[in-house]
């Protein structure tokens, strides 16, 4: 079949393209240019100028067409600006979710459909399983590489059209060996990491440049407004963190954690870790923009939820709300950070997910 | 690796990127490859190579109505443009048209940009006014635009330049061989492969046989005006291609071009600069609501080679600076360029029209 492969220029998506080509499919490669590589982009991150040339070299070598898609302005608006906006609201965003949701699985996928492709494949580590009621998303075989949390916002319709051949790979070494076997020069290329559009490695600098209002130091206070210390900028903090609080832990005699970020007052609010993380009020989480990969269960569903990129599952009951959100009742209290994703799992299967909001009950 | 002349199953309609090689140019180039001598050598083999080189020089110069001493061979038009800006731009204020090719725009990054009207034609009165206000100047105006095919009012531009003592440099890459060029009193850049010659040779035609401050002095070749051993095969190919292009009757190509435009308009496309004088082979087709990128991809996958004038070296298609300069907004990123090659066949054009209509119907939402 005619299939479009989203190629970043890295090992994973190159192997996907090569595998599909070897299987006899009509492969079309596409690489999104997300920012001007004339500006300093991190060499290890995805889609810098070199990556585009690498993707093109793979396509030329294997003999299929490859196109570079200009997604700069769309990426800036839908990912980078909203990333900065989220920090300006005191949230901790997940830009990769926004990128997958918009630039990749809406724009590029739409392009694939326009070109008469029957499917679009990516190098993501998730498993797409053909279930009795259509396509299901599952965790990959290689748990180390699991990207399901970043892909929870994939709609049923998109999932139906997508293919993730690497979901079945036992580990990355296997993928690299395959790249070698397929004769891909990029077999040993380092993995991309962190936030691709932050050239310096410091997202704080970028956020402060784009949203000057978050810049500047401020107070660290407790729930009653008592000043406990000072901080160097609100964008450096995430709800739930205990780092970067200076000597407050020793001064108060208790380990503290961030409970709230008050951007207008430029304040970081903290509370004693043991106390706040066990408070009953922390057992309820409200989600916005829910994406259900099962029929939304009116009665609610008991499942595991994951509220950070790398974290264990927590037991919960999740009920859909009429505004397109959901209410999560955790069995044990937790400190979810507004802006992060809360993804629902049943075993290896992703049931859906939404974004954590600041309002708790 | 041996390459086929044209890939089987593809229809090549991107002549403004490069013309298919003309057989006479191939023969001339092969002949050039068989000449062992270096044209700068004093011995018999050198003299023989030089005889061919100088014959090519006088033919290329004659194509512009000039004597052979005005012709300086280069690696291509980008170099010729850079040489002209370097040699004639010193101590002068530089003006460049807003729709110029990057070969000029990037050679003169500090230049003042001259506006064009909605049809892409340079505003000569604006130029006149600016030249009256400034001192010595270099003015760079292309003879035909590579994206739209629009022909510049070069005689008017030259008159204005003469009145104020400004030097006029003309990038004639797209018009050379396709449209007669008889203007004197200006420098001219051309490229061999845009006329159906091999890639790798071009020329800078000077207003008169004059010394030139070289970009590369090297071994003093080209009478000290451009160092480096001349690319004899490509130069001989260029001379042969230029002769053939000038001798060609372009009216049949223009008729096929008109056929393309009629087909495009039948499915709602607009032809940029349709009402003004243009090259016989070039159409810039704006299909509203459909990104140029997707049009190019769809046509490529169907076997048709066309382009968007603004593709960068990575292949990324951005909005066209030419169309933006003409006041287009969304249209600037929804245009493709169809440029018919010298040897285009009617059946190819018919097949393209069918494919374009099908694409437009499918993608236009």
Automatic annotation (TrEMBL), chain A:
This is tRNA-specific 2-thiouridylase MnmA. It is an enzyme of class 2 (transferase). Residues 145-147 are annotated as: Interaction with tRNA. Its EC number is 2.8.1.13. It is found in: Cytoplasm. Pfam families: tRNA_Me_trans, tRNA_Me_trans_C, tRNA_Me_trans_M. It comes from Gluconobacter aidae. HAMAP family: tRNA_thiouridyl_MnmA. It comes from the Bacteria. ATP binds at residues 6-13, 32, 123. The record marks 124, 340 as: Interaction with tRNA. Catalyzes the 2-thiolation of uridine at the wobble position (U34) of tRNA, leading to the formation of s(2)U34.
UniProtKB/TrEMBL annotation, chain B:
Pfam families: Aminotran_5 (PF00266). Its cofactor is pyridoxal 5'-phosphate. Residues 11-352 form the Aminotransferase class V domain. This is Cysteine desulfurase. InterPro entries: Aminotrans_V_dom, Cysteine_dSase, PyrdxlP-dep_Trfase, PyrdxlP-dep_Trfase_major, PyrdxlP-dep_Trfase_small. Keywords: Aminotransferase, Iron, Iron-sulfur, Metal-binding, Pyridoxal phosphate, Transferase. PANTHER family: CYSTEINE DESULFURASE (PTHR11601:SF34), CYSTEINE DESULFURYLASE FAMILY MEMBER (PTHR11601). One of its GO terms (molecular function) is iron-sulfur cluster binding. Belongs to the class-V pyridoxal-phosphate-dependent aminotransferase family. NifS/IscS subfamily. The keyword Cell wall biogenesis/degradation does not apply. Catalyzes the removal of elemental sulfur atoms from cysteine to produce alanine. Seems to participate in the biosynthesis of the nitrogenase metalloclusters by providing the inorganic sulfur required for the Fe-S core formation. It catalyses: (sulfur carrier)-H + L-cysteine = (sulfur carrier)-SH + L-alanine. Gene3D superfamilies: 1.10.260.50, Aspartate Aminotransferase, domain 1 (3.90.1150.10), Type I PLP-dependent aspartate aminotransferase-like (Major domain) (3.40.640.10).
């Amino acid at each position: 079949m005619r299939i479009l492969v989203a190629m970043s220029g890295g090992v994973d998506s190159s192997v996907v393209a090569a595998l599909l080509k070897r299987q006899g499919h009509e492969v079309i490669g596409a690489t999104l240019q997300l920012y001007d590589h004339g500006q300093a982009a991190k060499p290890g991150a995805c889609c810098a100028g070199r990556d585009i040339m690498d993707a093109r070299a793979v396509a030329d070598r294997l003999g299929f067409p490859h196109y570079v898609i200009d997604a700069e302005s769309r990426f800036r608006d839908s990912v980078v600006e909203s990333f900065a906006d989220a920090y300006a609201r005191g949230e901790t965003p997940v830009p990769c979710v926004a990128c997958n949701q918009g630039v990749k699985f809406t724009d590029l996928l739409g392009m694939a459909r326009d070109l008469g492709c029957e499917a679009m494949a990516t190098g993501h580590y998730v498993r797409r399983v053909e279930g009795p009621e259509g396509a299901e998303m599952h965790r990959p075989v290689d748990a180390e590489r699991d990207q399901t949390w970043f892909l929870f916002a994939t709609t049923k319709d998109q999932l139906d059209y997508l293919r993730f051949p690497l979901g079945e790979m036992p580990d990355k070494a296997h993928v690299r060996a395959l790249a070698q076997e397929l004769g891909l020069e990029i077999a040993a290329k380092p993995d991309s990491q962190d936030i691709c559009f932050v050239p310096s490695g410091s997202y704080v600098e970028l956020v402060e440049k784009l949203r000057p209002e978050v810049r500047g130091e401020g107070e660290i206070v407790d729930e009653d407004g008592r000043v406990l210390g000072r901080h160097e900028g609100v964008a450096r903090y995430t709800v739930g963190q205990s780092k970067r609080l200076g000597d407050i832990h020793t001064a108060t005699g208790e380990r503290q954690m961030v409970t709230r970020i008050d951007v207008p007052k430029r304040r970081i609010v903290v509370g004693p870790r043991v106390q706040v993380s066990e408070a009953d009020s922390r057992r309820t989480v409200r989600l916005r923009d829910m994406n259900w990969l099962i029929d939304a269960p009116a009665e609610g569903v008991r499942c595991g939820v994951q509220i950070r990129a790398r974290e264990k599952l927590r037991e919960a009951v999740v009920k859909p709300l009429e505004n397109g959100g959901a209410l999560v009742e955790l069995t044990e209290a937790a400190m979810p950070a507004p802006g992060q994703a809360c993804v629902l799992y049943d075993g290896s299967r992703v049931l859906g997910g939404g974004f954590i909001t600041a309002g708790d009950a | 690796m041996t390459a086929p002349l044209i890939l089987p199953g593809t229809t090549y309609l991107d002549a403004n990127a490069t013309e298919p090689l003309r057989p006479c140019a191939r023969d001339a180039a092969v002949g050039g490859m068989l000449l062992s001598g270096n044209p700068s050598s004093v011995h018999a083999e050198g003299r023989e190579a030089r005889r061919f080189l100088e014959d090519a020089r006088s033919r290329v110069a004659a194509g512009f109505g000039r004597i052979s001493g005005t012709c300086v061979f280069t690696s291509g038009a980008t170099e010729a443009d850079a040489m002209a800006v370097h040699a004639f731009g010193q101590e002068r204020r530089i003006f460049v048209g807003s729709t110029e090719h990057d070969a000029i725009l990037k050679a003169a990054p500090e230049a003042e940009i001259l506006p064009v009207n909605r049809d892409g034609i340079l505003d000569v009165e604006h130029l006149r006014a600016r030249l009256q206000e400034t001192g010595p100047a270099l003015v760079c105006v292309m003879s035909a635009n590579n994206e739209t095919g629009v022909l510049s009012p070069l005689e008017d531009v030259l008159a204005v330049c003469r009145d104020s003592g400004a030097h006029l440099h003309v990038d004639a890459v797209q018009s050379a061989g396709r449209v007669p060029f008889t203007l004197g009193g200006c420098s001219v850049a051309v490229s061999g492969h845009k006329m159906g010659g091999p890639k790798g040779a071009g020329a800078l035609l000077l207003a008169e046989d004059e010394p030139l401050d070289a970009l590369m002095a090297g071994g003093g070749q080209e009478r000290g005006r451009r160092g480096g051993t001349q690319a004899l095969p490509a130069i001989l190919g260029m001379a042969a291609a230029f002769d053939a292009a000038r001798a060609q009757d372009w009216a049949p190509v223009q008729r096929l071009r008109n056929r393309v435009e009629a087909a495009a308009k039948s499915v709602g496309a607009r032809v940029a600069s349709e009402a003004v004088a243009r090259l016989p082979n070039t159409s810039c087709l704006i299909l509203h609501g459909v990104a140029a990128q997707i049009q190019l991809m769809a046509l490529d996958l169907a076997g048709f080679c066309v382009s968007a004038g603004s593709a960068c070296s990575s292949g990324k298609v951005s909005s066209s600076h030419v169309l933006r300069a003409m006041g287009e907004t969304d249209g600037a990123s929804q245009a493709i360029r169809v440029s018919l090659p010298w040897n285009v066949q009617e059946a190819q054009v018919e097949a393209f029209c069918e494919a374009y209509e099908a694409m437009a119907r499918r993608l236009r939402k």
